[in-house]
Specification:
alpha/beta; 16 helices; globular
Amino acid sequence: MNSIERIAALGQRIWYDNISRDLITSGDLQRLVAAGVRGVTTNPTIFEKAVRDGGHYDAEIRRLEEGAHTPAELVRELMAADVRLAADVLRGLYDRSLGTDGYVSIEVAPDKAQDTDATVAEARLLWERVGRPNVMIKIPATDAGIEAMRVVLADGINVNVTLIFALEVYERVAAAYRDAVEARLRADQPVDKLASVASVFVSRVDTLVDGLLREKLNSAPAAEAKRLAALLGRTGLANAQRIYQRYKDLFRGPDFARLRARGARVQWPLWASTSSKDPERPATWYIDRLIAPDTINTVPPQTLEAIQAHRRPQALLEAELPKARAVLDGIRREGLELPALLDTLLAQGLAAFESSYVALEARLADKKAALAAS
């Protein structure tokens, strides 16, 4: 049993946060699935890197150019093509698991994040373009996005709700999922194939909070410095751990039991941004501490390599709950307003994805011009 399989035995699925045409056509994705990877996520930043790093898309760009696609349409078509191919690689896993595993996520254009109607339209279009049952449409957890996810889930479209930072936002996402399930049942529509995950971002929280703690450390006396140092690298974990406890309240208790009895699936928490950003911490810093039943961890290539070398994974999430409460109390005592900081991270995440999307459109425009001139 390898490390990915050991983590699965502890109740957590490992997904791969990466996609490219070469990953699929080389057989590497199939090998990862054989090793235990259960799903794939992507975003504009990942796709921009895939297009930048090689000529794997040149033939398709030439073909699509004949249809006079706009840059935004070209992005959509190329991303949908990759996701369709990846979904086909994972389709056997999806079928064998009866829809528990084998999903590939594709994100709506981030410039639509504050527009419910535009997000709904884009989600429906992506669902149609990919045309596979084992796909999830990624929608950011803005006010508009949460309303959009409620609509498209009621349509029967699988959704990965992304860029969740705050507990209060997670609760709204979970409520929207339940509302969509209820709407489908009222309309006599099946719910047993409807799937959704709630993507909670972790290390970005620590990057922000640790920076503020280190500012305090620079002028703190020895006793206070020791207390501050104990908080470093812990806020994102503590935030995720309390969200997991809320997940158990909402989906494992009697309130969801009636919907589960009618075939509804729970909306699993997915841990995102789990690569260690601090060189002083091991690459697996966020791995053991986030393992718990009914969770997913989506990891980039370097973190997956660290997992594969990690021989003794442990499910520490619930064991460290007392520590999580102490960390959050410590953050409050230091005068750091975590809710406001988490709102800042959502805005930053949206801006980063939109910047990557703009860069991707520009890169594709350059490639079109270069191919036309060759």
